[in-house]
Write a structure and sequence with these properties.
The N and C termini lie far apart (about 50 Å). Strands 1-2 form a two-stranded antiparallel ribbon. A two-stranded antiparallel sheet has the order 3-4. It has four helices and four strands; from the N terminus they run H-E-E-E-E-H-H-H. It is mostly helical and about 80 residues long. A hairpin with a 4-residue loop joins strand 3 and strand 4 (about 40).
């Protein structure tokens, strides 16, 4: 497979992530159940993976920041 084919596959994957995993109403990337053909209603820390992968738009990144407290938990540093 050449570079152009990989680029096309990457763009297709990015489009699918935006289509199936972004929930604009909630401001989160969510999991998707392909059997039920529905987005998950649970909050998972994986919502931040598109940031790490560089797939989130600046607007999506700002929306995700609003949910940081959802995933913050006190740690035990002893």
């Amino acid at each position: 497979m050449d570079v152009e084919q990989w680029k096309k596959r990457a763009e297709s994957e990015k489009a699918n992530i935006q289509k199936y995993l972004w929930n604009g109403q909630r401001g989160l990337f969510v999991d998707y159940d392909f059997v039920q053909q529905a987005q998950s209603s649970y909050d998972y820390v994986t919502t931040f993976f598109p940031l790490w992968a560089g797939l989130a738009t600046p607007e999506q990144a700002q929306a995700l920041v609003q949910h940081l407290a959802t995933f913050e938990q006190p740690g035990d540093w002893s």
